Automatic annotation (TrEMBL):
NCBIfam families: PRK12516.1, PRK12547.1, sigma70-ECF. It holds the Pfam family Sigma70_r2. Keywords: Sigma factor, Transcription, Transcription regulation. Residues 106-156 form the RNA polymerase sigma factor 70 region 4 type domain. InterPro entries: RNA_pol_sigma-70-like, RNA_pol_sigma-70_dom, RNA_pol_sigma70_r2, RNA_pol_sigma70_r4_t2. Residues 15-78 form the RNA polymerase sigma-70 region domain. The keyword Zinc does not apply. PANTHER family: RNA POLYMERASE ECF-TYPE SIGMA FACTO, RNA POLYMERASE SIGMA FACTOR RFAY-RELATED. The lineage of its organism: Bacteria, Pseudomonadati, Pseudomonadota, Alphaproteobacteria, Hyphomicrobiales. This is RNA polymerase sigma factor.
Length: 183
């Protein structure tokens, strides 16, 4: 069908210059405006069966363009530019079972420590008390508490067969901070 015999196509082409000018005024960038016009024309072409000939095609296509502009703006507001992958890398979450398994192993190993070492380690490592405060709580010298904590940490590493950070979780970046604070 020729351009002259398709009234919809003829009318659509007639509004292109005004449509592009409107798109440039919205975008402020001619390349982006051209993309927006193309998107609007494609949507209008796809919906031509819903257009009633004899009504205002200019207003109809301008509305499509304006709605497409705002849809793209909303979408762009939700998107994050991450060409180097740094943002995505930080969002990756390893499965929770690694931490859960590490914690179970730790709890089991903790029960194998002598009571005085376990108490000192939990007060310093888990409760966050200073060595001096723990010494006061336990009624002994600060050096004794430091020694108990050191022996407890060494014994936990031995019981859990830990040689380094890579022994926690699936990889180095996800090593369990909870366990590292104790050992």
């Amino acid at each position: 069908m020729s351009e002259a015999s398709d009234p919809f196509k003829r009318e659509l082409l007639s509004v292109l210059p005004n449509l592009r000018a409107f798109a440039v005024s919205l975008c402020g960038n001619s390349d982006r405006a051209d993309d927006l016009v193309q998107d609007a024309i494609l949507k209008a072409w796809g919906a031509q069966d819903r257009f009633e000939m004899g009504t205002n095609i200019k207003a109809w296509v301008f509305t499509i363009l304006r709605n497409e502009f705002y849809s793209q703006a909303r979408k762009k507001g939700r998107e994050v530019q991450d060409s180097d992958g740094l943002f995505t890398e930080r969002m990756a979450v390893h499965p929770g079972q690694y931490g859960s398994l590490d914690l179970k192993d730790f709890a089991k190993a903790l029960t194998q420590l002598p009571e005085d070492q376990r108490e000192a380690l939990l007060l310093v490592g888990a409760s966050g008390f200073a060595y001096e405060e723990v010494a006061e709580i336990c009624g002994c010298r600060v050096g004794t508490i430091k020694s108990r904590v050191s022996r407890a940490r060494s014994r936990l590493l031995e019981i859990m067969q830990i040689d380094g950070e890579m022994d926690f979780g699936p990889d180095k970046s996800s090593a369990s901070s909870t366990l590292r604070s104790f050992v």
